[in-house]
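DATA CLASS: polypeptide
GOAL: derive structure tokens

***
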Amino acid sequence: MFDYPALNQKTGMEMDYLIINSLPASGQLPSYNPQFFQKLVQNLTNEGAKVITTYPTGMCPCTLEQHLTVSDIGVLSKSVQHIVAIDTGPLWTTFNIHNKNKVLSRTIYGTTSDTIDLAPNTICFQTL
């Protein structure tokens, strides 16, 4: 679990979902399909959920467009209820001591995800 001073910052956003849909550039999710996340975001926003993604979808705020760092994403993760993520760089700071028992669910996609056991309420899948 990450614990470093930058994670102590306060976030000005309250979101229901943090969707880490950044392109997995190291081959950790061969079944990656951006349409999977587009559809997920569309369904969640249609249901009235407040969603933020790490890669633009055109349907909700995006950390990339807001120039948030990986540490900023870790801070943001303290104020979300659910994290849906590709096993990629922006995911790792969301495993921090400040949200360990606050996040209601984590769904992680990636070939190494079957070994992730850092937080409660985590479900891992190796394909979309």
